[in-house]
Design goal:
Layout lengths: L1 E11 L14 E4 L5 E5 L1 E8 L13 H14 L3 E6 L3 H12 L8 E15 L5 E6 L10 H7 L1 E2 H10 L4 E9 L5 E3 L16 E8 L10 H13 L7 E3 H15 L7 E5 L10 E3 L40 H4 L1 E9 L2 E5 L2 E6 L3 E6 L1 E9 L4 E9 L4 E7 L2
Parallel strand pairs: 4-5, 4-6, 6-9, 9-11, 15-21
Antiparallel strand pairs: 1-6, 1-9, 2-3, 6-7, 7-8, 10-13, 11-13, 12-14, 15-18, 16-17, 16-19, 19-20
Length: 396
Amino acid sequence: MKKGVPIILLIFLISTCLFSQQRSFKVVAKSNTGETVNLYKDLYALVIGVSDYQYGWPDLPNAVRDADEIGDVLSDLGFKVTRVKDPTKNELMTAFDDFIFNVGQGKDNCLVIFFAGHGHTEKLAYGEDMGYIVPRDAPNPDEDMSGFKFKAIDMHTVEAYARRIEAKHALFLFDSCFSGAIFNISRAKPPLYISYKTARPVRQFITAGGADEPVPDNSIFKRQFIEALQGEADRNEDGYVTGTELGEFLQEKVVVYSREAQHPQYGKIRDPSLDKGDFVFQLRSKPDETIQYKPDETIQYKPDETIQYKPDETIQYKPDETKQEIGYGYLIISSYPPTEVEIDERRYRVAPPLIEIRLLAGRHTIKFFNKELRIEKTIVIELLKGERKRIHERFN
């Protein structure tokens, strides 16, 4: 079915980080053990938006604007961005060729290709679903199927481009309903830390929804993607967001904010040579988070304000009570219809929107209630150290 929605094709060979524009600059990351992991030499992005369609497709006013907005965000992260607006098939293929067979051949480069426009999924004669991205001059398949297949670009073509890239990491991101036939759907947990495995080759894919799920022109997926790169997806707070972390974050957030109308998918290409790594975004530090101490803000302690600690007031820390032993996890909570939420007798906001909090590992009591709908339910969960547990309650 065709989707009257921007597809955001982000073919991303992505990674991280960097604000230098020098071609010899090396992007590196530190693992949890302190080892240096070499990631990328240069970061490049190709962003494409199609708003003005010619033959039977409804126009998408936000698609070009979405492409520009994503381009701006990537530029802020150090990517060298090429922008293409309202291309025909020939113009789109030329843009892919110029990008992939030039900067895409640098083995230590990181690439992003973003496409915002219509997407379509068609069932082929032998039963496989085939996804297409739609340039401005492709006809509506309901009116001209052979013309559509001639002008639209199918996912086998996209896969072929992915395999011709020599750069280390690639992420393909589609803000549309789409068939994920060319990649393995992933449910694996994101890695806890950057490691040498991160630097191995990979081609990753994220879609905003499954086949036959309409995706709105006012893109929920795009908004959450931007928030992810602003640090929301950095669950272990190490300053990096991996492709797997990004996929998991978008899957959780978009499902909730779309009220379960969209179910993003993420995974890696079906190729043992290209599915071992994980691309990495190095996040920008926020200057306004630095605390500046001015001389007049210095706290003066007077002798009569000195706190006297008596021996019987000393706090004894037992080994099993230390932060290192107990640890923290993340609890992600949503419900439908919306309910108020109470965790360990502490009241939180209504869910949705999604509630995500950091809690000590251990047992927690969660209460859901909506007085108007006479909803009241209590559950008890166990949260492990380092775990990210999602709770979604659906009430009839």
